[in-house]
Design goal:
Layout lengths: L6 E7 L6 H9 L6 E7 L6 H6 L6 E5 L8 H11 L4 E4 L10 H9 L6 E9 L5 E5 L11 H10 L9 E3 H6 L13 H9 L4 E12 L5 H4 L1 H8 L1 H7 L3 H10 L3 H22 L3 H14 L2 H16 L3 H11 L4
Helix pairs in contact: 5-7, 5-11, 9-12, 12-13, 12-14, 13-14
Length: 329
């Protein structure tokens, strides 16, 4: 495996002392040897730095910075990109890890395609590493899609976990590096949307990353912000040139209607998120929008949320019971 392209692995981390060893060791275990791992520690106040410093492999580079936080996450990612020397960029956050053949599978595939990005299925695990799910359930539905169809899919719902992604550095640099919108506590969604405009994506029907869900994650602690950030795709679509919009609407059936439905359902889910955060005023505001702007089915759910906001009833417990009784709803 001589003269293989170098893969630069960007690993942002913050207070990941419980997980960072497994993250680094999963990189050391890769069957593909031509990599560098750039670990950028955003001012951890636990033992994360000490744990990483124990690894003496020269391919691992540890950088510690003053804490910038999630709203400046793009600065952390782009600093790692600036320091990278590889032709390819992979993402592996400090609480995630990889199967040992991840890089080998994707780098073999890269030789047969001009795609700017490849991705695959992810094992979703809990804080103990126990399997919760493998997502997406079906990668085959993403095979053979046109560039317009891929962008349409991303506008509606991003199926890609960043721990499975490898992209060409030249393509990433051509869009100005990683992107982060004002309301987004992450960089992946806005970045991949921009990249989908310039090149093809290659889905691979293999498990290419292990994504960990735990109670310290942004997705657990900032649900409202995550949902608001998800609405960026609608703003992104609206700013596209008219000819690009037309090609997308021709490629994806009822795209405009589906985006409108996504927007309306976001009001309902924002209401739920704000209710969980204890902000009843914003919860009621969003439930009311869902009631008056949505269809009867959505309106009924939102009305229940509105009632719960006044009566102090646990909406999430009701929703859990409802989802078990109506798994396809």
């Amino acid at each position: 495996m001589m003269n293989n392209p170098l893969v630069s692995i960007i690993t942002p981390t913050y207070n990941h002392e419980k997980f960072i060893a497994q993250c680094v060791e999963s990189v050391l275990a890769q069957s593909y040897p031509d990599w560098e791992q750039i670990v950028i520690d955003d001012g951890s106040d636990d033992q994360t730095g000490e744990i990483v410093s124990q690894y003496t492999d020269r391919r691992i580079k540890y950088i510690r910075q003053k804490n910038k936080g999630i709203w400046r996450l793009v600065e952390t990612y782009n600093e790692a990109l600036r320091l990278s020397k590889g032709d390819y960029i992979a993402i592996l956050e400090g609480d995630d890890f990889w199967p040992p053949d991840k890089l080998e599978i994707q780098m073999k595939s890269s030789k047969c395609t001009d795609a700017v990005l490849s991705w695959g299925r992810a094992r979703v695990v809990d804080s103990h590493g126990d399997l919760l799910a493998i997502l997406p359930k079906d990668v085959k539905s993403f095979l053979g899609l046109s560039r317009e169809q891929v962008l349409g899919q991303l506008l509606l719902s991003n199926p890609m976990h960043s721990c499975t992604i490898i992209c060409r550095k030249s393509a990433l640099l051509s869009i100005g590096g990683f992107k982060q919108t004002k309301d987004a506590p992450y960089v992946d969604g806005p970045t991949w949307l921009e990249m989908s405009l310039i090149g093809d994506f290659l889905p691979i029907d293999e498990v290419l990353g292990c994504y960990r869900r735990h109670d310290r994650q942004i997705s657990f602690s900032m649900k409202a912000s995550m949902i608001k950030a998800g609405l960026y795709s609608i703003e992104f679509f609206n700013k596209l040139p008219d000819d690009v919009k037309a090609s997308l609407e021709n490629a994806v059936e009822d795209l405009g209607a589906k985006l409108k439905c996504k927007e309306l359902y976001s009001y309902y889910y924002l209401g739920r998120a704000y209710l969980m955060e204890g902000n009843r005023t914003l919860a009621r505001e969003n439930f009311s929008k869902a009631i008056f702007l949505g269809d009867p089915s959505l309106g009924a759910k939102a009305m229940l949320g509105l009632i719960c906001s006044y009566c102090g009833i646990d909406l999430e417990r009701l929703a859990e019971v409802y989802d078990k009784r109506n798994p396809k709803d």
